[in-house]
Amino acid sequence: MIDLYYWTTPNGHKITLFLEESGLPYTLHPINIGKGEQFAADFLRIAPNNRIPAIVDNQPLDGQPPLSLFESGAILLYLAEKTGQFIPQDLRGRQQVLQWLFWQMGGLGPMAGQNHHFNRFAPDKIPYAIQRYVDETARLYGVLDKRLADRPFVAGDAYSIADMAIYPWIVPHTWQQQNLDDFPALKGWFERIQARPATQRAYALIEQVNPPPQ
């Protein structure tokens, strides 16, 4: 059983995508970041960087006591290795997945996150900052579009943790001032993942945990 500490953000959705795809049993523990619950002492013992997501694996493969992890990329890799799913076992296939996982963690996520901040949440609208992050997000979308031009998924023929890491950061593309019609290969990939039953189950948790205001 996995305890998942979660909120309805792109990084949170990465882990529910994996858990719904893999069928691993899990218990959801909402951490309302709008109310500051990420700073609670109990949560900080699991996630010292006061960010979601985090997990506790109550049955790690080494048979030792429960294991806690924070950082979404590390969690995805751990779960893939635990289950043997969504990461190739051969050297070259594994490296394809890992480099695109790290691309999301080091590039798309931070840049799109700053895009969200300056576009939607900053109290002062700073045109230079907005344009900088909109442009960099567009560049990264272009990199991804080129990558997907001749393959169905980011690392090749098989859906992987790299796709799970990237997809939630494309979902809010309108926040980022991006039009998916400008990136046809990316758009096709996005629609394939959006149609997966596990994706729909993962995103249905929003209504349970943090329904949007009416």
From TrEMBL:
Transmembrane regions: none
Limits of the GST N-terminal domain: 1-87
Superkingdom of this protein's organism: Bacteria
Record-given protein name: Thiol:disulfide oxidoreductase
Residues covered by the GST C-terminal domain: 90-213
Pfam families: GST_C, GST_N
Family as reported in the entry's similarity comment: Belongs to the GST superfamily.
The organism of origin for this protein: Pseudomonas alkylphenolica
Family annotation (Gene3D superfamilies): 1.20.1050.10, Glutaredoxin (3.40.30.10)
PANTHER family: DISULFIDE-BOND OXIDOREDUCTASE YFCG, GLUTATHIONE S-TRANSFERASE-RELATED
